[in-house]
Amino acid sequence: MAESLPAQTLPRWRRAVLKVGSNLLAADGGGLTARHAQALAGFVASSHAQGRQVVLVSSGAVAAGRALLRERALPGNDLAARQALAALGQAPMIALWQSLAQRPVAQVLLTHDDLRHRRRYLNARATLRELLLLDVLPVVNENDTVAVDELKLGDNDNLAAIVAALVDADLLLIASDIDALYSADPRRDPQAVPIGHVPVLTPEVMAMAGGSGSAVGTGGMHTKLEAAIKAAAAGIPTVLFDGRNAVTAQALSDGQLHGTLFDASGNRMQARKYWLRHAPAAPGRIRVDDGAARALGGGRASLLPGGIVGTEGEFHRGDMVEIVDAAQHPIARGLCQYGVAEVRRLAGKHSREIDAVLGYSYGAEVVHRDDLVVLTEAGA
């Protein structure tokens, strides 16, 4: 069906999240197959060769686990059994991607709670950022063995949108078993037509979503549209395409989309800055010297220990804190990598001394520039 949609240019991107559903990985006789994954892995490799970064969000663990136990009678759709299958199938799912990748693959298991909890959010963000710096392909999946609600919903579409915001992606790509959003379910309505461009996800657009397209996958078009809404709110456009079509995957490598493009609500930086500016702050402050204040005011610097002269109030690792200058004027706010007791010990120290002072390190920055918004810059 992809040929019924004219090619359109992909939005410019440097970092993307690619979500691959279990219906693209499941073999007809059970287990996993590289039939469709091969072309998608080729897109990832081509993107890497172009200097771009891709984070993969992959389903398929339950299908892989079920194949390993095909000789046993499984207790129907029992949740505990599905969780056991997910645990069993993680290894072959990762092995599949490693066999197709041209570089090391790392597994990252997350739940939505990991991304709602401030400390775990920062840990996940730091880990994924480091993996990308190391030229490793992160393969993210929901931790289905403990994520009860997410396992019921098959919510890797929404997880992919959350991960896209987590890693500051420029684009969310959803590989599906259908080539686009249609005006109605094309499996039931022969008059349904594909929609190439969705500027805004309105209730009318949401009403076009059908059910799950596969007995293997548990998500459907509705969860994909939910994911597009989440990504749009974070300033990230979403593309939906046919992951079964190798020609379509190759076209993505050439910057061409045969599928549906969902526009972002605004640009990614505006969305991130808005969230950082308005998220509730902890009742604590970090005071910095004049040099740090000038550096932060430029909008391109992180807050390092050396520029800190003191703290006020209480805050914990992952809290939103206010940064003030010597005259107590607020100059920035952001997510703090360290708690107040740790910041007091690090004040005035060089970043390379963090490990020696604390006995551990969460990174060289007390507040990373990606987690910081300047309050005094023009137009902010």
From TrEMBL:
Residue intervals of the PUA domain: 284-367
Origin: domain of life: Bacteria
Residue runs in coiled coils: none
Keywords: Amino-acid biosynthesis, ATP-binding, Cytoplasm, Kinase, Nucleotide-binding, Proline biosynthesis, Transferase
Known EC number: 2.7.2.11
Protein's cellular compartments: Cytoplasm
Pathway per the UniProt entry: Amino-acid biosynthesis; L-proline biosynthesis; L-glutamate 5-semialdehyde from L-glutamate: step 1/2
Main location: cytoplasm
Gene3D superfamilies found in the cross-reference section: Acetylglutamate kinase-like, PUA domain
Residues where ATP binds: 19, 176-177, 218-224
Enzyme class, broadest EC rank: transferase
Recorded catalytic activity of this chain's protein: L-glutamate + ATP = L-glutamyl 5-phosphate + ADP
GO MF annotation, one: glutamate 5-kinase activity
Entry binding sites for substrate: 59, 144, 156
SUPFAM superfamilies: Carbamate kinase-like, PUA domain-like
Family classification: Belongs to the glutamate 5-kinase family.
Function comment: Catalyzes the transfer of a phosphate group to glutamate to form L-glutamate 5-phosphate.
HAMAP family: ProB
Name the UniProt record assigns to this protein: Glutamate 5-kinase
Gene source species: Dyella koreensis
Top-level taxonomy: Bacteria, Pseudomonadati, Pseudomonadota, Gammaproteobacteria, Lysobacterales
Gene giving rise to this polypeptide: proB
